Description:
Oligomer: single chain
Number of domains: 1
Distance between the termini: 82 Å
Order of helices and strands: HHHEEEH
Largest sheet: 3 strands, antiparallel
Low-confidence stretches: none
Mean pLDDT: 80
Structural class: alpha+beta
Helix content: 40-55%
Strand content: 15-25%
Number of helices: 4
Amino acid sequence: MSTKKREAEQGAVLAEFVLFVAVTMMGLMLIVLAWRQNGAHMEAVDVAQAAARSATLGRDEEEATSRAAAVLDALPDTGAAECSSSQTVVDVSRFQEGWVTVTVTCQVDYTGLTLITNAIGTSVTESWVEVVDPARRTLGLAAEG
Length: 145
């Protein structure tokens, strides 16, 4: 290899290595971002399911709402690592028809990821509809659950 060619390639390996590290780090950040988004989705579904299931055990709309609120109050205030904040709506307007709907909106927490903050405003909204079991209500089994 000639001296001129060697001088022209000087630093090329270092530049390739720096580029490889930068692309790899961005790829890892995207994986963590997707992981947190999926975790927030699963957390929202879990909370909505638990609250809706508990609400179906009430004998009327008021008791259904209080049962769902009791489940939500039992959750930690800070939420999981994936949700920085959440909002829950319990809809018992179709309770007499046999349906309870719980909607959970979770603000995804991106803190700790470089250059990504919660200013992005990414949130996950999940709803869960649970069927009210009339036999549990009329036979008095709801008080046991």
